[in-house]
Design goal:
By secondary structure, the chain is of the alpha/beta class. It has helices at about 15-20, 25-35, 55-70, 85-95, 110-140, 150-180, 185-195, 205-215, and strands at about 5-10, 40-50, 70-75, 100. α3 runs parallel beside α6. The protein starts with a strand and ends with a helix.
Length: about 220
């Protein structure tokens, strides 16, 4: 049994990402599981995104890290990946092993059932939320965030933290490439690009950007 894990955490809002609401519980659950199987954490990824959004750049990086290191993707709960059945099917077809702590022995068939139920639940929650907002508008309730500026500052701080986190994760991949015989900046950039990694702006890596990654590692 593979006991090397890449841990993936997801929170649904920026406020949760900054405050740790929900994140601490996921981390505790994941680390308890790793302790129980005497496993090792290879890397940890945290994403702030709604569960109904399937475009997950941080999750994609976690999956690629699993491919590079041969580790298993580990999440606290199955719905931390997605409540979308098609998304789970795509993940399974990627051939990357993954484990959800709340269902560590779940078969692919059972996972499909659980995600289908969760997808239905998400649809119902969305409908109830929409109805509640429309009702509030009719009553004249003022909607929106009264602490917008404070939230904006927290969002910027979260982006800074995520940037440093991502650099640390890229360092792991670059070191792996170096151990495999890649030493020139151009070769390292090609290695990152071949593995599907993108820059923060969604572009391909260049030797200059790899140099910055190595400077961060010093």
């Amino acid at each position: 049994m593979n006991t090397n894990f890449v841990c993936y955490y997801r929170v649904s809002t920026t406020q949760q990402g900054v405050s740790g609401l929900g994140l601490d519980a996921q981390q505790e659950s994941v680390r308890n599981h790793i302790g129980a199987v005497q496993g090792t954490i290879v890397a940890e990824f945290t994403e702030v995104e709604s569960g109904k959004v399937n475009e997950r750049p941080i999750l994609n990086q976690a999956i690629e890290m699993c491919r590079v290191t041969g580790a298993t993707l580990l999440v606290a709960k199955l719905d931390r990946l997605s409540r979308n059945l098609h998304f789970i099917t795509t993940l399974q077809q990627s051939k990357v092993n993954f484990v959800a702590v709340d269902n560590p022995h779940a078969t692919p068939f059972l996972i499909h059932i659980l995600v289908a139920v969760a997808e239905y639940e998400r649809t119902m929650i969305s409908a109830r939320t929409k109805a509640a907002l429309e009702s509030a508008k009719r009553r004249g309730t003022k909607l929106g965030n009264p602490r917008f500026n404070e939230s904006l500052g927290r969002a910027r701080e979260l982006r800074r933290i995520q940037s440093h986190q991502r650099l640390g994760e890229l360092v792991v991949v670059v070191r792996e490439l170096q151990r495999s015989g890649c030493h020139r900046l151009k070769d390292l950039a090609n290695g990152l690009n071949a593995r599907g990694f993108k820059t923060a702006r969604g572009s391909r890596f260049t030797p200059t950007q790899v140099h910055r990654i190595l400077r961060f590692a010093q």
